[in-house]
């Protein structure tokens, strides 16, 4: 019989918890400073003989030893896999490297995988956990803002294919998410901005007050103020959890989380992975999708400059690469959201409300013309 661990008794007092309710697969997201070194963060995880930390060359020197030390209190063996850094390595080779290590160490089906890093590490580790022996438990330790507010929540895992982003993957939930805000102190400014893009997206799609809060607190967020970050990460996780809770397998509602992503994915794929950061492409994509919402008459004209100004203040690009309208359309038709060749866009239909719609190519062409150079 398992005994509930009184997590809240010894977690740092400023810790926020977001509970993801998914029946027996529900889990907690812990958010706050000081979590990596707090033993309570690591209590009550699935029992096993071994844990395997998956991380990369950049994150390992910063945080690996501390995570390993905490895990050593619970697992007889703590192994690691060090992957090359970068979106271009979110591929079969990296996935194989994880599975190779699991098999080489004769890891059993209880082995706990620990994803230590950004969304790339989280997505790959989650996918490896989903398929190794038909599923082993995994823990997310997101160390980028983007991973803390988005990719570590909701159970989507994936790797890329040269012909399309995240084309291979599985829905698979972590046992816990440990989002230590102190890890954001080492994040390069470009990566911080990329995470802000995903935070900004939650405003227009779900919460007009949150959009106004972000506008008022953007400078504090850019200065990595812990209280501001705690609120932004918590609210973002709550909104994502609320959406995912109603539509875990992306039948409908969950797609609104992809505001700005149809244009954004086209930019990422069109330029080749690794040129623009995911969050940068999403930032620019949100400008385009905001404009399309206005041009379709769903939003008043002042919505576009409002979004563009916020995205620009966050340090994100607001002008896309001039790939050509035909190329954009072609790239967007391959997008997973397209149905029978019709491109489906997430559009804003009132502040805090989003929906999926098609749009005439001619109108999309006008948008691309206005926001690429
Ligand atoms: N599963 C989902 O629902 C979901 C949602 C959104 C995005 N994603 C995926 O997430 C990925 C993007 O994630 P990302 O933006 O975290 O990118 P990333 O994982 O590539 O991390 C960005 C960079 O920051 C480095 N880094 C990580 N933590 C650091 C730290 N604390 N200090 C210094 N450097 C650090 C990384 O090594 C990398 O170089 C994409 O592949 C995207 O498809 C998935
Ligand atoms: Zn995204």
From TrEMBL:
Comment on bound cofactor: Binds 1 divalent metal cation per subunit. Can use either Co(2+) or Zn(2+).
First-tier enzyme category under EC: lyase
Every 3-dehydroquinate synthase N-terminal domain range: 81-193
Domain 3-dehydroquinate synthase C-terminal: 195-338
Cofactor(s), names only, from the UniProt record: NAD(+); Co(2+); Zn(2+)
Residues annotated as binding Zn(2+): 198, 261, 278
Subcellular location, principal: cytoplasm
Pathway(s) this gene product operates in, as recorded in its UniProt entry: Metabolic intermediate biosynthesis; chorismate biosynthesis; chorismate from D-erythrose 4-phosphate and phosphoenolpyruvate: step 2/7
Compartments it resides in: Cytoplasm
EC number: 4.2.3.4
Catalytic activity field: 7-phospho-2-dehydro-3-deoxy-D-arabino-heptonate = 3-dehydroquinate + phosphate
Keyword field: Amino-acid biosynthesis, Aromatic amino acid biosynthesis, Cobalt, Cytoplasm, Lyase, Metal-binding, NAD, Nucleotide-binding, Zinc
GO molecular function (one): 3-dehydroquinate synthase activity
Superkingdom, natural source: Bacteria
Record keyword NAD present: yes
Record: residues binding NAD(+): 85-90, 119-123, 143-144, 156, 165, 183-186
Function: Catalyzes the conversion of 3-deoxy-D-arabino-heptulosonate 7-phosphate (DAHP) to dehydroquinate (DHQ).
Family: Belongs to the sugar phosphate cyclases superfamily. Dehydroquinate synthase family.
Annotated PANTHER family: 3-DEHYDROQUINATE SYNTHASE, 3-DEHYDROQUINATE SYNTHASE, CHLOROPLASTIC
Stated name of the protein: 3-dehydroquinate synthase
Organism of origin: Roseateles violae
């Amino acid at each position: 019989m398992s005994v509930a661990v009184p997590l809240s008794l010894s977690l740092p007092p400023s810790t926020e918890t977001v509970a993801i309710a998914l029946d027996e697969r529900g889990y907690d997201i812990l958010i706050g400073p000081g979590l990596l070194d707090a033993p309570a963060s690591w209590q009550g995880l699935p029992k096993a003989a071994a844990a395997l930390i998956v991380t990369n060359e950049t994150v390992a020197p910063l945080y690996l030893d501390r995570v390993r030390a905490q895990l050593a209190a619970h697992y007889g063996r703590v192994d690691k896999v060090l992957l090359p850094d970068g979106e271009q390595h979110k591929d079969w080779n990296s996935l194989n490297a994880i599975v190779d290590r699991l098999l080489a160490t004769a890891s059993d089906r209880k082995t706990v995988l620990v994803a230590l890093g950004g969304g790339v590490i989280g997505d790959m580790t989650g996918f490896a956990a989903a398929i190794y022996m038909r599923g082993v438990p995994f823990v997310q330790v997101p160390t980028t803002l983007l991973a803390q507010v988005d990719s570590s929540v909701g159970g989507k895992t994936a790797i890329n294919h040269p012909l399309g982003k995240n084309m291979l993957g599985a829905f698979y939930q972590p046992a816990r998410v440990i989002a230590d805000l102190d890890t954001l102190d080492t994040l390069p400014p470009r990566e911080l901005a990329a995470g802000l893009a995903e935070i900004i997206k939650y405003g227009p799609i779900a919460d007009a007050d949150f959009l106004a809060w972000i506008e008022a607190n953007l400078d504090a967020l850019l200065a990595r103020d812990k209280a501001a970050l705690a609120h932004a990460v918590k609210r973002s996780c709550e909104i994502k959890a609320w959406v995912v809770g109603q539509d875990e397998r992306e039948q409908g509602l969950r797609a609104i989380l992809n505001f700005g992503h149809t244009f954004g994915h086209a930019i990422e794929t069109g330029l080749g992975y690794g040129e623009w950061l995911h969050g940068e492409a999403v930032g620019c994509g949100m400008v385009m999708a905001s404009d399309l919402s206005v041009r379709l008459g769903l939003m008043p004209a002042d919505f576009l400059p409002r979004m563009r100004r916020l995205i620009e203040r966050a340090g994100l690009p607001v002008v896309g690469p001039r790939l050509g309208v035909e190329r954009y359309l072609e790239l967007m038709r391959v997008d997973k959201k397209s149905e029978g060749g019709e491109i489906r866009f997430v559009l804003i239909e009132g502040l805090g409300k989003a929906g999926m719609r098609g749009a005439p190519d001619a109108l999309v062409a006008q948008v691309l013309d206005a926001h690429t150079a």
